[in-house]
Amino acid sequence: MTPEQFDVAIIGGGAAGLSAALTLGRSRRSVVVIDAGMPRNAPASHMHGFLSRDGFPPAEMLQLARKEVAGYGVRLLPHAATTVRGDVESGFAIRTGDSIEVTARRIILATGVEDRLPAIPGVREAWGRFLLHCPYCHGYEVRDRPLAVFGGLPGAIQYALLIREWTSDLTYLTNGVTPSDDESRTLRARGISVRDGRITALLTDGDRFAGVRLDDGRTVAADAVFMRPTSRPRTEFVASLGGALSPEGFAHVDPSGRTTIPGVWVTGNLVDPRAQVITAAGHANAVAMDVNSALVGDDTQTALLTLD
Question: Could you give the 3-state DSSP secondary structure of residue 90?
């Protein structure tokens, strides 16, 4: 069976991927979005910072977005992409885990990042509910309440200083990594208490957070814990196509989101893991315009050849 052909294949159907699909669908391009339905913000019940949609459930937003893009003829494939091969000259072929294959003239990767969580009991259960990573997304909802910061991770001290803006009742949990004298002085100056000891568990009781257990058996009371996790970019397809990656695994891109692979762009959290929903959607909108411009250039060159 001949694979279905599209102008653009978008791998990843979160806010970034669907935003790019909307712009390209409105540009009258044939577009397919391939997405397995596991967005990064799935544990969160609400999203924030999105003008006119503040507090909106992210799952509901994706449902509405899929309906919108489908109205412009965008094809939605609810599968995981497994392989990508080809090049801009001959076209790209994308295969899914269900052995569906499509071809496309251009590719946008909106596959995001995977947050790496510590292997501590209760962490995954609390993630997105009581264990939070973005104060701009969740800080206002837990303002002026007793909070804690998961220490011992890169940038945790500066992160604690940021979280301090939302509460005066903040505890920095060292998690076995003692702050330096200067760091301790800085935390003390901002009224942030410090608790030594390794974190052994996050305790939840149904819809209530019951605190953080330390290795000496003590429990630190808090209504929520903030943690800045490390993130692994899902750039496997960039690597398999021979694209350049940074030491951290992110794709090398120009300001328009183009990778070093002709015909392949990246967007969303795959470019900036800190990007909120509105930021990722906005970047993808600009990427889609650049992709459409590239296709216009190809179409023009093809038309000129017919005159010769």
Answer: coil
Cβ neighbours of 51 (radius 10 Å):
6
Domain layout of the chain by residue ranges: 4-115+230-307, 118-226
Q: Give the number of other Cβ atoms within 10 Å of residue 300's Cβ.
A: 10
- With 0-12 / 13-18 / 19 or more C-beta atoms within 10 angstroms meaning exposed / middle / buried, residue 109 is buried
The CATH number of the domain covering residues in 4-115+230-307:
3.50.50.60
- Report the CATH superfamily, name and number, of domain 118-226: FAD/NAD(P)-binding domain (3.50.50.60)
Q: What is the mean pLDDT of the chain?
A: 94
pTM of the model: 0.91
Residue 308 has pLDDT above 70, yes or no: no
pLDDT at position 231, please? 86
Q: Give the pairing type, strands 113-116 and 230-233.
A: antiparallel
